Protein: MarR family transcriptional regulator
Amino acid sequence: MKIEELLKTKDKMPESRRLVLNLIVTANHISELLAEALKPFGISNQQFNVLRILRGQKGKPANLSTIQERMVSKMSNTTRLVDKLADKELCERIVCPSNRRKVEIRITKKGLELLKKIDPVIDKLENDFAKKINEKEILSLNTNLNELRS
Amino acid sequence: MKIEELLKTKDKMPESRRLVLNLIVTANHISELLAEALKPFGISNQQFNVLRILRGQKGKPANLSTIQERMVSKMSNTTRLVDKLADKELCERIVCPSNRRKVEIRITKKGLELLKKIDPVIDKLENDFAKKINEKEILSLNTNLNELRS
DNA sequence: CCATTATATTTGTACCTACAATTGTTGTAT
DNA sequence: ATACAACAATTGTAGGTACAAATATAATGG
Structure:
């Protein structure tokens, strides 16, 4: 659906504005789909993101600032987000022995098992989402999006 | 910058996932730029969005549900958002005389004047953002984004 | 060794947001 | 006319988030 219809605005707008609105609306849309898919598993988009970051460490622990710089949506309060995951026993945190300012955060077995269950659901969702445009379009979209951030 | 570098992940991912992440990251990016630009004027992205919706009414009042369905990022709590705007005297709300369940919300003179000051700033921002890719690319991006929501 | 600065995380606080329940009003069927 | 459903907005509440200040530890320079 065209963005003008979606936002029910009559006055037509410059392409640059349409681009900005389109981007935000589409990102909201996919974020909502993701949140909905994750809901049955009891975790939020952000928490899922952190869990995947932790898994990506492949056993090596991560500290808070590492997690923060890798998050898709940066947030000011990673401490409390990790707290939530630790409460659910999806990750564990211990004070780093070599540098007691840092904490070492690891995904737990329970966390890995949860991700294993979630993976196919998210894969399918991402696939279904992307396949509305063809492969070549996906590639050029990705390139253009990179450009827009530079 | 490529999304993998940005999120500092080593393992390469399918294009569909790259698309999803790219979208969210890029939308976050432009939202932050907008928020920063609006900060000096003392309003948030959402409040700015509502003000523009109200201006788009061209004198005709809007009610809450109208505003809600036109917002770029839908939210559950438009009442309190409009409260904030009313506190700042940027809009006014009166109970609709013909249907006392509804409220009629109008942008005030002060609101219009504020928008007039903000307009060129946002126009420039949107332009600078979009011009990183060429016109043809903007058009195809907009088309593809529409498709992704269908 | 001590004071200062830098680093890493945590906490306090105020605000924002989602969701559900509530209120007030209108429309409709009996 | 009255009860009931539908509608529009508001409010309570719990949880999320940003920002700044505080805490704790480590590194550095005199």
